[in-house]
Amino acid sequence: MRAKIIILLASVVACGAVAATALEASGSQVVGLRRLTENEYRNSIADIFGKQIKVQGTFEPGIRIGGLTAASTAVLSITPGGFESYSKMADNIATQVVSEGHRKQLISCQPKSAKAPDDACATQVLSHYGFQLFRRPLTAEELRSRVALVRTMTKSSGDFYAGLRYGMATLLQSPEFLFRKEMAIPAAGGTLALDTYSRATRLSYLMWDTTPDAELLASAQSGELATPAGLEKQVDRLMASPRLEVGMRAFFTDMFMLDTFNVISKDSLFYPKWAGPMAAAAQEETLRSALDLALTKNGDMRELMVTRKTLINRSLASIYGVPFSFNGEWAPHEFSPESGRSGLLTQISMLAMFSHPGRSSPTKRGVAMNEILLCEPTPTPPNNVDFSEVNDETGPLKTVRERLMAHAADKTCSSCHNAVDPIGLSLEGFDTIGGRRERENGEMIDVSATLAGKSFHGAEGLGKFLYNSPKFPSCVARKLYSYANGLNSEEVENAAFKGGLDAFQKSGYRLRALIKGLVTDPKFFTASMEAHAKAE
How many domains does the chain have? Predict the structure, then answer.
């Protein structure tokens, strides 16, 4: 039976794909195709059908390109195993939607007979959900083929809702839902301009991490979204919603590489505090503190490098060595000046993610901070580099600083190490799980560093260095633009996000100003014909 379902779904998808070419026949071109992430899929289903509909299945992972997993959504397809998983999820969701417990709420019409075909009711239901799932109206052929399938399966089963289940499932497992297809038409200056439905989709998944809502789709359908005033109206509405936090939570998770917590492990013999919910709590602290500063307080984003304010729970307090006497699960906390803490740099998440299981790693931390905060990727080291001296903790060189200095004397290593080690060495006052320390193998730890000709001391000095560096806000703008467009941030030209960066700077580095500056810049919804031709 399962094989039969998948074959039926695949046949209708093929018909729909042929019909969809009608969308391109009028001069429209496909300029982007992005696979939905797991969160985007789940959020979309919840918004279209309600949170009572469960999503159960396995999603294919993304890969990190240019510092962002979002970039891989534009290059990854779906494997045969992945297609089967999506098909099973589609059938399961469709079954729930048409079930007796949900049909009164989710099915807008009643068939003349629950045991016979009703094309009018099937058309009403499928056109309604097709508009939401495909993020555009269905073509006549897409709708006709699905109504015909519902009719056939109703006759076969003697149950209208069983037939409707199959029609609904074809929508849910269609590439038109699983991928964000961006369509564009020729515009002035040798460019391609996204159509209004593609604009609505790009805005919604950036700002809310979900499918466009009814008002945004209506704005696209009327053409209002193609006008500057209509665009600004919708952007302001999306930003005013508390759901902006959902969208920016997804962005910060990607930019700060917090998804890598899935593979983080620590030596429990030496670090027994790292257990159970610690990793999830550390990830949540970084997200809560970033969102609190950027959205709740509408603060200067550079403060993320220097603030001693954060939000912690009981588990984190044990590693930070601070009392937690609050009744709630999370509470605001401000570290003392003597703590050595400085913003995101010294939160448990950033320190633990980029360390070894049993010890810290100045090089890993330096490489990560350069890539995440300054958009300066470090080349992969040559295969023949000898790391034995760096890893030898039993030799005469007792501290990692001494071992790195000896290692960096190698001409093949010095250029990279001189760029990353100062950052990591300034953070050596913290162990592999982010706890405070002063000694390493009995020796006092030296946290002084010099970078780009400027000397500083410890994490606080590093935080001030990054706060004053124009590279940090520029990197935030670059990453947000790349995230929104599914691009490799290392290949994005500065001119592409200049409008957003200018607005960011003029606002005193407020995140909302950056978002609005990016999405209202005419370049945000255009593509070069030349670049599109090369991509094909």
Answer: 3
Q: How far is CA 207 from the centre of its chain?
A: 11
90 within a domain of the structure (yes/no): yes
155/304 same-domain check? no
Note whether 91 and 171 are same-domain residues: yes
Pair (304, 436) in one structural domain: yes
Which residue is associated with the tokens 């014909």? Answer: 529
Phi first, then psi, for residue 102 (nearest 5°) are -120, -15
Q: Among 179, 206, 236, which residue terminates a domain?
A: 179
3-state secondary structure 259-284: HHHHHCCCCCCCCCCCCCCHHHHHHH
468-491 tens-digit pLDDT? 999 999 999 999 999 999 999 999
Residue 184 forms beta bridges with which residues?
29, 194
Chosen domain end from 468, 488, 513:
468
Residue 187 dihedral angles phi and psi, to the nearest 5°: -135, 180
| Listed residue (367, 361, 403, 368) closest to 386, CA to CA | 403
Q: Which of 10-19, 347-356, 382-391, 452-461 has the lowest mean pLDDT?
A: 10-19
Q: Are strands 331-334 and 29-35 parallel, antiparallel or unpaired?
A: unpaired
Reference 470, options 376, 362, 329; nearest CA is 376
With b for 16 or more beta-carbon neighbours within 10 A and e for fewer, the 426-456 pattern comes to bbbbbbbbbbeeeebeeeebbbebebeeeeb
Query: Which 3 state secondary structure label does DSSP give 423?
Result: helix
| Distance (Å, whole) CA 459 – CA 429 | 8
CA atoms within 13 A on the CB side of 534: 5
For residues 300 and 348, membership in a common domain is answered with yes
- Render pLDDT for 107-145 as a digit per residue (tens, 0 to 9): 999 999 999 999 999 999 999 999 999 999 999 999 999
Question: What is the distance between the alpha carbons of residues 360 and 385, in angstroms, rounded to a whole number?
Answer: 20
- What does pTM read for this prediction? 0.91
CA–CA gap between residue 374 and residue 428 (Å, rounded): 20
Over range 157-171, report the average pLDDT.
98
Assigned domain for 221 exists: no
Assess whether pLDDT exceeds 90 at residue 244: yes
Please list the residues that pair with 444 across neighbouring strands. 439
Q: Are 382 and 396 part of one and the same domain?
A: yes
Q: Residue 522 is part of which domain span?
A: 471-535
Does residue 223 belong to any structural domain of this protein? no
